[in-house]
Specification:
The protein has about 575 residues and is of the alpha/beta class. It contains 21 helices and 13 strands.
Length: about 575
């Protein structure tokens, strides 16, 4: 069991022994570390309940606790606070036990999760919004797996909407003689398509503004979207070719970000299930006609903000983003049978998911117990507090951002590292910098991405954590060379080392909280606190030249433990540890 929980139990037993009944005892970190590492503040309310003097009561409790081997010092302060200092020896024993058993990773009750994140749109450039979805989603996946869940990651490509129609129309306008636009075309792919991914990315904004400006062009794009959804051979082949070009580029960038998916499905895969789903919805009497469109009512009496009906089939006969998401749930429930489905998306999409989730429940596409969870995130802003832009004012693409941060971190790598190694290290550190910063803020809040601040080697930054991890690794290597193998923690000096031990106590709670809140900020913050405490200890002591053999070995063991925690948590945050810096 958790060290702190064990101590809470001891306090509770003492209280019971003294004749006081209490449901729960919670020990808290002490703000006045000079008085004690921890404090218990429950005596005042207990005294009120028993009509006794809180200071007298607290004094009696302190006397009893003082007899317990794990309590080194218990004092009473103010109106009846108990200040607590634990014995270093019982901490050492407990932590050695945790370190060996890795009990902080003991599995939670089994659950199967489908997690939907990434969500890039084919033929559109990846921007910082997609970065957040990828970062948060990947880390939540790794965290859930580390705590024993079965997790299936699905990228859910935006590969079938009107944007595809617009792009195909633009291609058709530019290259009307392509094979796919001729009659009797029946190939899988368009072999004569003269287009790269960069071209696609340039094409989209042009195609989209033309369609927005001219009704006629918009109608043509819709028509093509409709034909695509009806499996028109030429457009379908063009679509496949566009997909191929776009996916190749996406795979590269996700690999760079250490983000991976079990399923590369997309909106187009949901298409297969739409006819049977709509038939089922009609049979259940859930579909109503409205101005030429077909809709499902999802409003509820308690709604404070009006929830509009879900648009199932638009008046032009194409299906909406909502319908695709509903059909995706249909597919996932039939083929993957998850207990929960998580969606990591920009928080501005909340209403969309409210509509989809309600329709899914109403239509019994999911069971009553199935949990559908919207995990919305805020915007990454620039220093001006507005959505991040390039220096020229263009949209900040993922590649632009990586390049910019790379430039900043490259300057700080030691000069003796040159050439290709320097280049690769800069890339690894830059990505670690971006990810750490991105996961440090509470998921649903907007935050400012300040390149100078986040690439600094001190403070709550990726480079700080990475630097400190590398230093521990080289210390451990040296210790090994000196013959210290499988070190044990037996004796500490209470010179910064105990603080490190105490800092590790909340590891399990941090992991569980992060999973509960579906936010990684507590993990990032824990990493910072732990490394900061460790670095203070490191600065105050000469670990490898310490004369007392037991202390020396214990300090190496402590370093090993912190290094292991760093590896674990950086892995959950999907941040790679560079070889040098
Ligand atoms: N492609 C969408 C976008 O860029 C995100 C997809 C989110 N997932 C989902 N199942 N709708 O906004």
């Amino acid at each position: 069991m958790d060290f702190l929980k064990e101590q809470e139990k001891i306090i509770q037993n003492v209280l019971t022994k003294l004749g006081y009944e209490i449901e729960e005892v919670t020990i808290e970190g002490n703000n006045r570390k000079d008085l004690g590492e921890f404090q218990y503040n429950g005596m005042m309310s207990l005294a009120k309940k028993y009509h006794q003097n809180p200071i007298e009561m607290a004094t009696k409790v302190a006397e009893e606790l003082q007899k317990e081997p794990s309590f080194e010092k218990v004092t009473v302060a103010g109106p009846g606070f108990l200040n607590i200092t634990f014995s270093i020896q019982s901490l050492i024993e407990k932590i050695e036990e945790i370190r060996k058993s890795k009990e902080y990773l003991s599995p939670l009750p089994k659950k199967k999760i489908v997690i939907d994140y990434g969500g890039p749109n084919v033929a559109k450039v990846l921007h910082v919004g997609h970065l957040r979805s990828a970062n948060i989603g990947e880390s939540l996946k790794r965290l859930a797996k580390a705590l024993g869940y079965e997790v299936i990651a699905d990228i859910h490509l935006g590969d079938y909407g009107l944007q595809m129609g617009m792009i195909m129309l633009e291609i058709q306008t530019r290259y009307p003689n392509l094979s796919c636009f001729q009659e009797n075309f029946h190939e899988e792919f368009v072999k004569d398509l003269p287009i790269t991914n960069d071209d696609l990315i340039d094409l989209y904004p042009i195609a989209s503004s033309k369609a927005k400006e001219q009704e006629e062009i918009m109608n043509q794009a819709r028509e093509i979207t409709y034909k695509l959804q009806q499996n028109h051979p030429g457009y379908k082949a063009l679509w496949r070719s566009i997909m191929e070009i776009s996916l190749k580029d996406m795979k590269e960038i996700y690999q760079l970000l250490s983000v991976s998916f079990d399923l590369w499905k997309g909106e187009s895969d949901a298409e297969t299930f739409i006819p049977e789903m709509i038939e089922d919805l009609r049979k259940k009497g859930l579909v109503t006609q409205s101005e030429g469109a077909e809709i499902i009512e999802v409003a509820e009496k308690e709604d404070k903000i009006a929830v509009p009906p879900l648009l199932l089939i638009k008046s032009n006969k194409t299906v909406s983003y909502e319908t695709t998401d509903l059909a995706t749930i249909w597919d996932r429930m039939k083929n993957l049978h998850p207990d929960e489905i998580w969606y990591v998306t920009d928080k501005r999409q909340e209403l969309h998911f409210t509509q989809v989730f309600r329709a899914a429940k109403k239509a019994k596409i999911v069971n009553d117990q199935t949990k559908l969870e919207f995990i919305g995130f805020g915007t990454m802003n620039g220093n001006d507090g507005k959505p991040f832009k390039t220096r020229e004012g263009g949209i900040m693409t993922l590649r632009n951002l990586i390049a910019l941060v790379k430039e900043a971190v490259e300057k700080k790598i030691i000069p003796s590292i040159t050439g290709k190694e320097r280049e690769e290290l800069a890339s690894t550190i830059a990505i670690g910098t971006i990810k750490f910063a991105d996961l440090l803020s509470q998921r649903s809040t907007d935050y400012i991405f300040d390149i100078e601040k986040f690439s600094d080697t001190s403070g709550k930054t990726g480079p700080f954590i990475l630097y400190s991890t590398i230093r521990m690794r080289s210390l451990l290597k040296k210790a090994k060379e000196m013959g210290i193998e499988n070190p044990k923690m037996t004796q500490l000096k209470n010179n910064g080392d105990k603080k490190v031990l105490i800092q590790t106590l909340t590891l399990r709670k941090t992991l569980e909280n992060a999973l509960k809140q579906k936010s990684l900020h507590e993990i990032a913050n824990f990493l910072y606190l732990l490394n900061n405490t460790y670095n203070n200890f490191y600065a105050e002591n000469r670990i490898l030249t310490e004369s007392d053999k037991n202390v020396r070995e214990s300090w190496v063991a402590l370093t090993e433990y912190v290094y292991e925690i760093n590896q674990l948590l950086l892995n959950i945050l999907a941040i790679e540890i560079p070889t040098r810096m």
